[in-house]
Model the fold of this input.
Amino acid sequence: MTRLSNYLLPTEKQAPADAEAISHKLMVRAGLIRQMGAGMWTWLPAGWRVHQRVVAIIRQELDGIGAQEMLMPVLQPAELWRKTGRLDIDELFKLQDRKGSEMVLAMTHEEAVTFHVAQTVRSYRDLPLILYHFQVKERDEPRPRAGVLRTREFVMKDSYSFDRDRAGLEENYALHIGAYDRIMARTGLRFYRVESDVGMMGGLGADEYMAPCPAGEDQVALAPGYAANVEVALRHPDIREVGDGDAHPPRYMLGDQVLTIEPAIEIGNIFKLGTRYSEPLGANFLDEAGNEQPIWMGSYGIGPARIVAAAVEQFADEYGISWPRALAPFAVHLIALGKPDTPEREACDGVYETLRAGGVEVLYDDREGQPGEKFADAELLGCPLRLTVGRKSLESGEIEVQLRRGRQQAAGLALGGDPEALLRAVDELWRSLP
Amino acid sequence: MTRLSNYLLPTEKQAPADAEAISHKLMVRAGLIRQMGAGMWTWLPAGWRVHQRVVAIIRQELDGIGAQEMLMPVLQPAELWRKTGRLDIDELFKLQDRKGSEMVLAMTHEEAVTFHVAQTVRSYRDLPLILYHFQVKERDEPRPRAGVLRTREFVMKDSYSFDRDRAGLEENYALHIGAYDRIMARTGLRFYRVESDVGMMGGLGADEYMAPCPAGEDQVALAPGYAANVEVALRHPDIREVGDGDAHPPRYMLGDQVLTIEPAIEIGNIFKLGTRYSEPLGANFLDEAGNEQPIWMGSYGIGPARIVAAAVEQFADEYGISWPRALAPFAVHLIALGKPDTPEREACDGVYETLRAGGVEVLYDDREGQPGEKFADAELLGCPLRLTVGRKSLESGEIEVQLRRGRQQAAGLALGGDPEALLRAVDELWRSLP
Done:
């Protein structure tokens, strides 16, 4: 039951003064998120619905490759991070407890998961294994920016694979690539998988998932059959700069193909860690011959918040957000134009009840207020289907339908007829959407 | 698909040396949780399944009273806590970011939610409102103890109600009592709702939900028609101590009824905050006459981890855990006694596939290993139904059934017959369980 008259959706006409990224502006204006401090954000109810849609897709695909969900703490003993040599990372928040013990707030969970695996995995029979959780991460970002794109706290899905050798790691890595490809495709985003650097994680190789959009802080280099993080591309021996002086930005060629460089948001990254963490933390197993061997690990992250923001960036228009249907907070935004106790309001209440009883996720704008404001809020929030019932509907016998993407008017739906027919018609419309 | 051969369920014969509480011992031994440091715990996959069962029940009942789910950050500006006078609480973790700004880790979210409501609620039309989230809490406990019963980090569901006046608060408080009563009843726990102190929360009144068990740190005072936290009871004007000297513990009477005092775990608490937080944080609304008024608030917490631990405490026997069916990690623990490639193993694989395809949550012990070890692990983990298929099953044509609670053998189920009949029989058994 979601009636806008008692739902916290504080829409705003103005974006925050410091907002530059489209997603930052629109997510605040649509009432999805609110800021608590630099890099600290709250997900309001409608925003959290979108976030949790992404979480549900990720969970389903991870479970599908046999990954096991768990939960590891954010607050951790500093000692673990000292052992892996990561205690000095600037982004790592450090603190002391009341007894003066050194603690950290996890920015990722390699140390934690490896600590547990070192204690629980004993033999090759216990491998392979994929573990994951959704947990808040804390990072002391020097420059939080762009709403939820770069924050100091965010929910991340991080999974970790454990294998007896490199071949096993390659298999689990390939399983994750499959799962990530499906996750990204299901969100409805445009994305690239690109080669990347291992960075602070260390290890043997890495790929990134990138969603192209102007607010992206990263850059991807693209040519037919080639996609890489731009830093990786610039080290490619066959990529050469061609220039016509200082006046223009540099252009690059790969063989005889022009390399396109696009800004993009990093929405996922996966790393072949090898034994980078298992060795310092003593995560070993006994092989068939009874010899102790270090466990081979992989690490796989996705930030649901960035997927949400990337979807806003890629599909917004001048009126607001336009969700891909997999991420929409509600399938239907139903607008009542009539005042309470009018026949047109009663008709709209009936449509709401039919949709709700039929399991359609519907946000019902039953507020007092002007039609123009209601339409503007609906376009700002960006649910894929907008249905409107007003006095005109009673005359025409039709519910007005707008498809948010492209703002096209669709054929009206019969008002007051067979509820099953209405549900079938809404379902058919829904399936036709991107 | 949950096959024990590749599931992380590290059972142990021995409990941790420092463990005293039954839940601490058994949850570690059953492979549900592992410790990372003092008061810092990881939920392993089977434990997390139980935790999330509690979360799902809470979410459903909160949504049922119109509460709206969101997510607020753990990392917060210290300034907010200074305004409410709670910055000096010893249990509050404080830290500085790289620029030297003072931050805290939220131990509860009154400050955060009131901050947002102050910015977004303007008029009496925006009220009433119930907001909630599931989020990790951090508390610098001086004495973490008893496994997940008293930790420095834990997931809490906290909800907050916002009303225009005291009558509104009383209504939302009553709605929460209804939801909490249903939540606790659905978990299968024995529990009391008792009057309590407001403590560090401040405000006008409070109730606690208590699950009686020997490991409880709290005490409830009970008499016919009366239940209170023992501190509250001892201030009751009609409760009097009757003693026969120093040799015996004190006894108390309420009128002519003996007061029973039982140890209990606090599993939920609810507070009438009044304007304790809205005033310092400026959370006001405009009433119909255009006058600014402070918002009346309530605050409502539940710790899923404590509900899990209390269920272990209340129903365990000398063999292990015995879950109420609402919380069990799996409905069925299926044990294959036969080695791979034997007819009895093939028959057990068939039962597994039937149950799985029928939507039964089943943990399949398909490991190599001795029957005795498999039975011991099943009794330790405590799933309500244990099914066993071995060579004997082929002879008798029956799947062996044990009900974990009470360890009774039930009538066998037909092996290799109609899959639908097997699913119906399992479902019927399931419904008969506590």
Observations:
- The first strand of chain A starts at residue 33 and ends at 37.
- The two ends of chain A are 26 Å apart (CA to CA).
- DSSP finds eleven helices and 23 strands in chain A.
- Chain A touches chain B through 59 residues (CB under 8 Å).
